[in-house]
Amino acid sequence: MASILAVDDSASMRQMVSFTLKGAGYDVIEAADGVEALNIARDKSVNLVITDVNMPNMDGISLIRELRNLPSYKFTPLLMLTTESSAEKKQQGKAAGATGWIVKPFNPDQLLGTVKKVLG
Amino acid sequence: MTATAEQLDIAPLSTEEAGSQYLTFTVAGETYGVDILRVQEIRGWEPVTRIPNAHDCVRGVLNLRGAIVPVYDLRLMLELDWVDYSAETVVVIIKVRQRDSEKHVGVIVDAVSDVINENDIEISSSPSFGEHIKTEFIASLATARAGAMVMLLDADRLPIAGANSSDEDHQADE
Amino acid sequence: MSIDMAQFHQVFFEESFEGLDIMESGLLDMDPGAVDSEQINAIFRAAHSIKGGAGTFGFADISGFTHTMETLLDEMRDGRREITTDAVDVLLKSVDVLRDMLTAAQDGGEVDQANVDTQSAELKRVLDSRPGQEAPAAVSDGESETVSEATSAPVIGWHVVFRPHAHLMRTGNDPLRLLKEFRDLGDTSVSCDIGGIPEFHEYEPEDACLSWDIHLHEAVDKYQVQEIFDWVEDDCDLAIMEIHDESAPAEATPAASEAPSPAPAPAAESKPDLKLADPPPERRAGVDRRKPSKPAANTSAGSIRVDVPKIDSLINMVGELVITQSMLSMLGEDFDMQDVPKLLEGLAQLERHTRELQESVMQVRMMPISFTFSRFPRLVRDLSSKLNKKIELKMIGESTEVDKTVIEKIGDPLVHLVRNSLDHGIELPEVRAAAGKPETGTVVLNAYHKGGNIVIEIKDDGKGLDGDFLFNKAVSKGLLKEDDVLTQQQKYELIFMAGFSTAEQISDVSGRGVGMDVVRKNINELGGSIEIESELGVGTSIVIRLPLTLAILDGQVVRVGDETYIVPLVSIIESIQVRPEMINLVGGKGEAFKLRDEYLPIVRMHEVFDVSAEHVEELTEGLLVIVEAEGRKCGLFVDDLLGQHQVVIKSLEENYGNVEGVSGATILGDGSVALILDITGVIRLSGARQDDFRLPRSA
């Protein structure tokens, strides 16, 4: 099954994302910030990364930039979790190499729908 | 069985289960009993640490596996004369309930005698003694098969510190 | 798929309360003149997270309320709105309302809807007031645009020209996935334009070089088509054209489909076909790192957050302990007298490890005093406006660590003391000015460690205490006789008497009923002491000393007759052997002795505690332990000193009750119980026995 790296500093969001995806049979790895995520991603290649934007230590946009520069993540879908109001964040994310975004607030069905779409 | 259970309902003994057993012990020649489920342990008398300015019947505190437990002399609680402690003197550690809390207290008695089944005794619920005997914490009288009388104590009504009845007694300075 | 979101609620609430704390302290720190952008960003992020979580976890009202706050904060951080005191006040009150809403949601309680509505209206009022001069001419929203594009002819489908830029696949997007999504919308015909494929020697396998013409024969809403390209709108040239009923596809051959370079910009004019990028509704500062969030001050008393390093050190220590233990038990299996040095070494190791373990465990319970201090900026701000006073609060030593139990119990007494300072201490600005003081009064909260204690000072530069006024008041209340003679210090301490209120009229600030006597009692219960220093017209300083932990105490073991007691080391000034010439009988009643220039009363412990066993009677044969409590010194007369130990404090009240003069008990090395003295109580007891050593009593 596809593996997904879920990155969020908010434990409740992380739990929700992880719980939803695991329920759908995905293999989920959690990370609380960009640094942690990057270390995990270097060790083990995942099929999809879902990251929050505002995080301590390394934010989501920097994480996406770093990941995109890794050879094994050249084409990997990298999604960010944003809110509807942050158009500029989306632009920054895109510029850093993000595939797309999931708009908060979202419910588990929306999350799964998007993930299914991306992972085919 | 039914009859006994009914009597238990009347008696203010807070037994936790029906079909109780009682630990009996002697104080000044009389036999007393307490619900065995209330008995935590029995230990030989060893000197305790005195609590300053406490009521006479508080002999002090001892270390019960790390907890500080006060020790009361049942003779003095019953307002009997004090006698020197001997090799037979024991401290019965019992659980008592006060309002919402549970306390452990030690009660010094002359000697432990027996464990009796409630089937083997006949409980009469209205003890009446002369005025000179403290009765407020004696729940009931019972007669054992051999005809000996056992006074069953209501652990929760023992006149210990914090109890409603005689709190002031114990805390007051002389 | 149905997932019970309730399982994430607890974590969400915890996070949100933390966020509220961050917002509150951030707002309080905010100086309308000069705002640090990181500061307002942190507040914004907290609001933002609460909103996001509330929306996700189904608390629509919370999400909606927070949204308004977020909007306001967002304008502030972009510099589009001036930060006014009014706005900050409204935001602060909104934080309170939000806290109520979250609490209600957490406990399933009722929220005061009227209050929420009032506050929402307040927020909207601020929001609707003209933002600052830098406001953009028009804050347009996407909605109005779509409306204006309404066309008359019925739309039966969409014609989309999609030309990915070369890098599209390197964003993780896949044209095939997008095409598949069209199929989900309805009947689709797609033709591929392979004209973009370069010559083989120029071919870059990672580039996207195909483009597509897509016809969707389904009258879906435009946004559904736009949504498919949501993620790639900047990575491709895109034209979305309506197919009208007259089966004449809009004759817009957008420049975009011809000229690959300057993306949709030139096509933007050819409405209605091209999706416009949403006008950036706001300007944003760069991404900021989030400060590690502070642990919540209001997590329940039942749990404690512990840093992982602290746990790791505990585990290491336990590991060492296990090794030592196994070494000792091996030694014991086949013990030979030759092994004695090894045994001693092992025991020394055991002692060291046990001590370290104890220290580490204590560390786990230590929390910074900022948990308690954090409420004061708000308190001072609110009260000073209520009292029409100008007051500045300074807090020092907020990172000083204290035992969790102390943190929990010291809060209320401190609030009371600070309120007192504000209410009774600091004067009104006019009064201060007239007295030649700066109009703004200062209250300083200072916490620091000193000799195994934590010391908390509450200091103000207010009017100070008037000893004579206090004395007369006590007399008029019948608490003292007119001919009583009190030192200045004793007069100050009158405020600790029950029912003694210095306020000429009871204000709703310093509360009624509960007075300083309760404060002192609470602090004494924590094993601490409280002292007052004051100078009329200059200010008052209240010093609280508390043990760092309530679990362990450094004690001096003393012997009185055949009994041993523990005197807390913190109370001991020194221990001396008296010489006959030092002893003085005061008025034939009490005993005192002269220590340097002071006369101190002697408290015979055997009398106070009624020790009947044989004990030292002659003062010169025993020892005097000079102790100090609540600003009073005296000499405790004991038979002997037996050594100093760190003792674990056990409760006497758990199974027994409160004993005057005794604060608790401990278990000595031999398993026996020793009582720990409560110096204040001992002095009080002795005072009850000695007329001339009467102290103001709260009883």
Key terms:
heterotrimer; A: 120 residues; alpha/beta; Rossmann fold; 5-stranded parallel beta sheet; 5 helices; 5 strands; 22% strand; globular; B: 174 residues; mainly beta; OB fold (Dihydrolipoamide Acetyltransferase, E2P); 6-stranded mixed beta sheet; 5-stranded mixed beta sheet; 3 helices; disordered C terminus
Report on the structure:
- The complex is a heterotrimer of chains A (120), B (174) and C (699).
- Chain A has helices at residues 11-23, 34-43, 60-68, 87-96, 108-119, and strands at 3-7, 27-31, 48-52, 78-83, 100-104.
- Chain A has 120 residues and is of the alpha/beta class.
- Chain A has one domain (3-119): 3-Layer(aba) Sandwich (Rossmann fold).
- In chain A, helix 1 crosses helix 5 (108-119) and helix 3 runs parallel beside helix 4 (87-96).
- Chain B has 174 residues and is mainly beta.
- Chain B has three helices and eleven strands, in the order αβββββαββββββα.
- A six-stranded mixed β-sheet of chain B has the order 8-1-2-11-10-9, with helices on one face.
- Chain C contains 20 helices and 22 strands.
Secondary structure layout:
The complex is a heterotrimer of chains A (120), B (174) and C (699).
Chain A: E1 3-7, H1 11-23, E2 27-31, H2 34-43, E3 48-52, H3 60-68, E4 78-83, H4 87-96, E5 100-104, H5 108-119
Parallel strand pairs in A: 1-2, 1-3, 3-4, 4-5
Helix pairs in contact in A: 1-5, 2-3, 3-4
Chain B: H1 2-10, E1 21-27, E2 30-35, E3 39-44, E4 58-64, E5 67-73, H2 74-77, E6 90-98, E7 101-109, E8 111-117, E9 121-124, E10 138-144, E11 149-153, H3 167-171
Parallel strand pairs in B: 2-11, 5-7
Antiparallel strand pairs in B: 1-2, 1-8, 3-6, 4-5, 6-7, 9-10, 10-11
Chain C: H1 9-29, H2 37-56, H3 60-77, H4 85-107, H5 113-128, H6 142-148, E1 155-164, H7 175-185, E2 188-193, E3 211-216, H8 222-228, E4 236-244, H9 255-258, H10 308-333, H11 340-365, E5 366-368, H12 370-373, H13 376-387, E6 391-396, E7 401-403, H14 404-425, H15 429-434, E8 441-450, E9 453-460, H16 467-476, H17 488-492, H18 516-525, E10 529-535, E11 539-547, E12 552-560, E13 563-568, E14 572-576, E15 583-586, E16 590-595, E17 598-604, H19 605-608, E18 623-629, E19 632-638, E20 640-648, E21 662-667, E22 673-677, H20 679-689
Parallel strand pairs in C: 6-8, 13-22, 17-19
Antiparallel strand pairs in C: 1-3, 1-4, 2-3, 5-7, 8-9, 9-11, 10-11, 12-13, 12-20, 14-18, 15-16, 16-17, 18-19, 21-22
